[in-house]
Amino acid sequence: MAEIEIWKAHPDIVGIEVSTLGRVRTLDRTVPNGNGTRLVKGHVLKQCDNGSGYLRVRFSINGKQIKRSVHRLVAQTFIPNHDNLPEVNHLDCDRKNNNVENLEFCTHEENTAYRDKLGHTARNNAPKSPVFAIKLSTLEVSRFNSQHEASRTLGFSQGNINGVIIGKINKTHGYFFVNDDGHAVDVVKSKLHDVGGIGLKIK
Fold it and tell me: What is the pTM assigned to this prediction?
């Protein structure tokens, strides 16, 4: 059975509604149009990663562009915060799971302690996606059990590694990356053909 989604107006931001499943939408509104006005239909807002794994949305208020974290919008809308706690914790340590049932207000110390205690376990229990890393200057290929392991070993951002894999950027720090899946060989061959690579050294 599909989970019921409940929408509610944000208590402080006029013109948006937030859902219990972690979505945000604008409402229909009337805006100036020359000598008159026009109706702008509301819509569900696109969510983007802020670079740290949290989702955020962007919307306009009185012509000003506003960016807000989705988890904070959900908590502010649905969860009482009588003690005025400053941070919002994800109970399953998944920063993209903004279902209201997965969120709680907390102190900075509580948030850090929870992440230190359970975050490592949550990451280790999560499904791993092995990746190949190709050093383009030497054509040496290394295999890592996850993007996180590649990031830790090679010493640069996991976000950049993921950016290469999804095609957002061509390379990072002289490396090309590809998921170790059924398409890896073809993708690697295509990339090496582009750079004129031969004589791979598999590590």
Answer: 0.58
